Amino acid sequence: MTGVAGPVTDGRLFIGGEWVAPDGGHYEITDPANGQTVGLAPEASRAQVYEAVSAAREAFGPWSRTRPEERARILDAAAAIIQRDAAAAVELARRESGATTATARAMQVGVAAARFRRYAKGALEPVEQPLPPQVTAAGPMGGGGVLGALAVRRPVGVVSCITSYNNPWANPAGKVAPALAMGNTVVVKPAPQDPLSVYRLAAALAAAGVPPGVVNVVTGSSPEAGEAAVDAPDVDMVSFTGSTAVGRRIAEVCGRGMKRQLMELGGKGAALVFEDADLGAAVAGIGTTFSFYSGQICTAPTRVLAQRKVYERLVGALAAYAQRLPVGDPADPATVVGPVISAAHRDRVESYVELGRKEGARLVAGGERPSGGGLDRGYYVAPTLFADGTSGMRVVREEIFGPVVVVLPFDTEEEGIALAADSDYGLIDYVWSGDPARAFRVAGRLRSGGVGVNTVGRNMEAPFGGFRMSGVGRDVGSYALHAYSETQALVWPGGVR
């Protein structure tokens, strides 16, 4: 094989280090920008998913005992291969996910390579934590003495990585890289809409020298493959990114088998904008909901809470921002807002826009399907802004996962905090204020896994995960290494006896 292009056109599963013909044939992957076929993805049977899990189980023992330096070398080599073949990878990511070229280059393929580099270093991080010695008195179990102890992180075992469609490079890399760094083996089940990039990722790892069975990739257009990747008896852990509804079903299966879970689920991020905020910065940050992945991102600040004094100014500025964003073909460098992932998802987002109208929210921008310039062939949604929302509206409470923002007014700090808390979700919230003391005071009272203070930026060493219905566990940075490990206590006698 030259480079990593072969498996994408071959349409085969990756099991036990081999490219395997699927039992169920193939299904089409569609370009969201124009409805054209990008390629064919393999349809795995339940038996083939179990075969992949068995291959991962067989490979686990040797891989978990591999020297950290060797794991680091392979992860670093994979990053180099991804970077070497980035042009082809970016093209594929754009075509199957609908991301703009700039987003596919920087935030998908670029972030994936960076994550493999990061966890090449992570493989070398210490896994032992010395604990203070404990003096014990003589008793029924024996004489007194001093007991030494270590807490040591060990790999969990076989990890099923079930990934989301909004980022077919960075999301799988964020699971696979730390899992491998810790000595786990993986079975990756990508989202059915855009799995071809994940096969390129697997090919890069194979070319980097990952042993057979350490990484396996299975796909399917129906829930069967994903269900098998969760319920297979040899799976020790499930790492899932996706909707809260699917996460609940996975958690039930994991609970029956006492399997470790890492769940990054939905979000309905509250953005509190106080009257002393830099409104330009707030608009630019909130406006990323309209443009970044066309709103298909769980961290988006989709629920904007604006203090009454700046409410109308903020609504007007957000409307102007939304209306000047170019919607179009993601291959066009001028495009800022590309399509959503599928016709079905476009229809879902549009149904929420209609629901917002019926619920009484004021439509300020968008609300109509973009047309002209070939947009009728793709799955486009205009950046949409609602004002005068109330906390009981479904468009305020439910994750839409599209370029739709709803603005609600508040008067006092306490009222703003209460509105932010009135949600089933708690992934990432945001606070914009010119008073740092207030901003951090408010942030400390928000029940969410992260808070952006005057920014929507992410620190990629900070823990990532949610409260309530937004997930279970934390990853990113060294926190991901902890997520993909179990802690073992080692205790021994020492000192004066």
Automatic annotation (TrEMBL):
InterPro entries: Ald_DH/histidinol_DH, Ald_DH_C, Ald_DH_N, Aldehyde_DH_dom. It holds the Pfam family Aldedh. It comes from the Bacteria. GO terms for molecular function: oxidoreductase activity, acting on the aldehyde or oxo group of donors, NAD or NADP as acceptor. Residues 19-489 form the Aldehyde dehydrogenase domain. The keyword Oxidoreductase applies. Keywords: Oxidoreductase. Gene3D superfamilies: Aldehyde Dehydrogenase, Chain A, domain 1, Aldehyde Dehydrogenase, Chain A, domain 2. Belongs to the aldehyde dehydrogenase family. This is Aldehyde dehydrogenase family protein. It comes from Streptomyces qinzhouensis. The lineage of its organism: Bacteria, Bacillati, Actinomycetota, Actinomycetes, Kitasatosporales.
